Amino acid sequence: MFNLPRLNIGKVSLLLAILTWLSLLFVDITRIFQFVNGMAPSMSPEISYTLEILFFILVYVFYNDSLQKNENTDFLNMIWRGASTGLLALIVAFGVNMFYKMLGETRLAQDPLLSNFFYHVIFALVSIFLISNALLWRHLILYQKTKKVVQQWQAFEVLLLVSMFFVYINGNVMDYSFLFGLVFLGIFSATLSINLKWIPYLTFKEKWKSILFLSIIIASTSYLLLELLSYSDSDIAFVNLTDSLFLMGLSTFVFLYALSSFLVTLFNLPTSSVFEQKLVEAINFQRLSQSIKPGQDENQVLDILVDSSMSASYADAGWLEMVAPGNEKQILHERFIDAQIRSEITELIERTKPFSDFSWSDSDNLSKKYLGKLRHPIYQSAFIVPLVVNQQTIGRLILAKEVKDGFNKEMVNIITTFVGQACISVENYRLLSDAIRTERYKEELKIAQRVQRSLLPRVLHHDETFDICGFSQAADEVGGDYYETKELDKGQYAIIIGDVSGKGTSAAFNMSQMKGIFHSLVQTNPNPTEFIEKANVALGRCLEKNHFITTTYCHLDTNRKELRYCRAGHCPTLYYNAKSENAEYLSSDGLGLGILRNSQYGRYIHESSIGYGPGDIFLMYTDGIIEAKNKMGVEFGYERLKSVLKDSHRLAAAEIQQYIISQVFDFVGETGIPDDDFTMMVIKFHS
């Protein structure tokens, strides 16, 4: 299949319009030639009327297509297009007049063929000018269009189309029916001419230009129509082209809309500056609303605030005074003022009412404004607006003018609005920054959680003579509890549980240090006392002064069925004796690691040992369990833990652990989890 080229309506209609005009010229010149040579007329006037109507339609199609392709053209350029078309037609018509004046009374000046040619040229230019301007007016009329206005314009277009064919019925301008139709079109044109909503959106400079362009259109419409009518009154026009009701009605519409636009624009000139100022204020308000974006800071908002406020109040000088870290005052975004004069004004403000009433600590600054006179050789009035974010005064905007009482109510209101919006933007930025920091902190905590989980053992060393299981849960995202085991030799095991003072990432960091010390020291297979003393020395070099670690270190010998242990300030181990069916806490004196960092520490450490039998249980835990509180503030406590272990002693080690945890959660109830990290290890012996 062949792809046919897309038809260019504009070019085709322009070409056909030119051919139609040449045909109209040929027909009318032929009619004159026959008349001059005494020949019988062979062409009826209806042929000229038909070609005239066709020419109107083709010109309309051409300009309508052109406007649709350039629909984003601004108002001033649109009016200039109409004025330039009229100016061109005006120059041609004036040139023709000058040409005939130069010919004077010569024979050429009386030649009907030449006169008829110029008559058709003027007719074509007038038609092009009027049709193009009518379509331009349509674009302006339908700006901010409503259904009613659209319907009015559509009705007017239908009337203009009907008026084209009126020439077949009546060909006399002076006929009453023609005059009635012209008056009706004039009334319709006047109704459409009140749609001038585009004028207020012109700037002061643009309004002056539009007045000039509209003057050209008004003058062109009047002169060209009179020029065309002057040809029609002569003997050379055998077919009077100006008898067209369409052409006369269109000229009335173009003239009335241009005149109406001219007068309204002229009367709007005094208020243009006010409208422009309001428009600038609206734009500045929008800039303040949209000024916070990712990657930017509040400094940009404050910069826009100063510019917008000075523009709205016509201030001669201005600056921002902000609270810097350390509660110091910092000057930002100075405009049109040097440091010396600014210092002079600041000193005047501090001792002049009402400015001296300003207080940085006033929580009610949000609703206050400070406006008054200054006794300064240059600046006679000032205006101060506090910047308040989250009920805290973060700064103040100071504006100064060289005239007394320079700030009126409108200025005060708009500047207050600007400051309020700027404060909202600053608050939004700070909230956004806090949210980003929080999100970054959460990501770091997730990493810390993964690291901490990797520090706790997945498998606890044991043999067939006993079972052991461990559990740990942090009160915060990360905690400082630690437990681990190490097989030292066949039947020989090192077991440790610890609790780092504090919570969060610092506790988790100290926990990792404890893990490293454990793995280093157990390589030498120390007894519990040696381990605790060496761990205290090692931790004393890396722990901060206000940090310490409580721990219980055990040496389990399954060959001798003996547990040797040393407690460094940690919770006492709970031991259940299956033979006596009794539970007791294994107390042993000890001081937390890092509390005393000298050679005297060993005096506070005591090693103990205990034998065990089948079914016996050792429960090692941190203080988060016994200190867990219910909603009444009652702690879970040592006795309750002892009772729970007794109730579950027949269960396997893992089941005992799960039972104790469930009892702690049931006790805590709605509070969710204990206030502190809690960790436990359950050891149950089979033989």
TrEMBL record:
Q: Which InterPro entries match?
A: Bact_Sigma-Reg, GAF-like_dom_sf, PPM-type-like_dom_sf, PPM-type_phosphatase-like_dom
Task: Report which superkingdom the organism of origin falls in.
Answer: Bacteria
Q: Which Pfam families match?
A: SpoIIE
Per UniProt, residues of the PPM-type phosphatase domain are 463-685
| Keyword annotations of the record | Hydrolase, Membrane, Transmembrane, Transmembrane helix
- Segments traversing the membrane: 12-35, 47-63, 75-97, 117-137, 149-170, 176-196, 208-226, 246-269
Name of this protein: SpoIIE family protein phosphatase
State the organism's lineage.
Bacteria, Pseudomonadati, Bacteroidota, Cytophagia, Cytophagales
